[in-house]
Each structure stands twice: as C-alpha cells, then as structure tokens.
Design a protein that fits this description.
The chain is an alpha+beta fold and 131 residues long. 28% of the residues lie in helices and 29% in strands. It has one domain: Beta-Lactamase (2-Layer Sandwich), CATH 3.30.450.40. The chain is globular. The N and C termini lie far apart (40 Å).
C-alpha cells in the first residue's frame, strides 16, 4: 500500500517500544530513547520525517546511523476509546520520501482505526473468556 519495506504496530511502555506486529524489521523491541514512535504518540495527527538526515532530532539516532538505516518515518498514534495513546502504526523506509501526501495519510488513518477496533475486540473477547 505504501511501497515501503518496513511497517510496525508498536506498543509503548515506560522504558521501551515493542512490536505487536512487524514487517521488514528484525528486533522485537527498542529502547524509548531510540524510538520515533514516542514522537508520533504525542501528536493528534500524522508525525512524518521525510529525511532523517535533515532532522536534528534523528540524524544521530542508532536506527538511522546503523540498522535498519531509517531515512523516512510516518506514524499515527493508536488512540484507544478512553483517549489513551498506547502506541503507533507506522511506515518506515530506508530512503528519503517526500511523496507521502494526504492520500497516504488517509490510508494510514484508516488502518489505525481498523487496528484499534481489532485491539478492542480482542480485549473484550479475552475478558469474556476469563469469566
């Protein structure tokens, strides 16, 4: 859908982000200090970095200077019905991208809505089974 090699559903806790689902990335988690998603989860809308080499916040990040060599990031927070932001759904590329426009943002937003709905359904089913 986005012609990007990496996509993640990340969940954040007090010290790390871990990947509930991932494509194109080996680690199962990273420290919050290296996380792009900590920036995305603090916003209401899209958090996008077209070229990490041009952004002082990320130019020295180990995920940029080493593997996986992040050059582009676009992410939206996973906002639960109670308003809590639990993580993100993000798209990552190893080359800069200046073509991630409104249409891509709407597509990512629709995927976020589906993801949150499925997370909530799974939570309800787990609670039902625990009774």
């Amino acid at each position: 859908m986005f012609s990007a090699p990496i996509a993640l559903i990340s969940i954040l806790d007090d010290r790390r982000q871990w990947f509930k689902a991932k494509v194109g990335l080996m680690p199962d988690e990273t420290p919050l200090a290296m996380s792009f998603c900590t920036h995305a989860v603090q916003r209401d809308g899209l958090f996008k970095v077209d070229d990490t080499h041009l952004d002082a916040r990320f130019v020295n990040n180990p995920l940029v200077t080493g593997q996986p060599g992040i050059r582009f990031y676009a992410g939206l927070p996973l906002r639960l019905p109670n308003g809590m932001r639990r993580g993100t759904l993000c798209v990552i590329d190893q080359k800069p991208r200046f073509d991630f426009g409104d249409n891509h943002s709407r597509q990512l937003s629709a995927l976020v809505d589906d993801t949150v709905r499925l997370m909530e359904q799974r939570k309800i089913e787990a609670q039902r089974l625990d009774r």
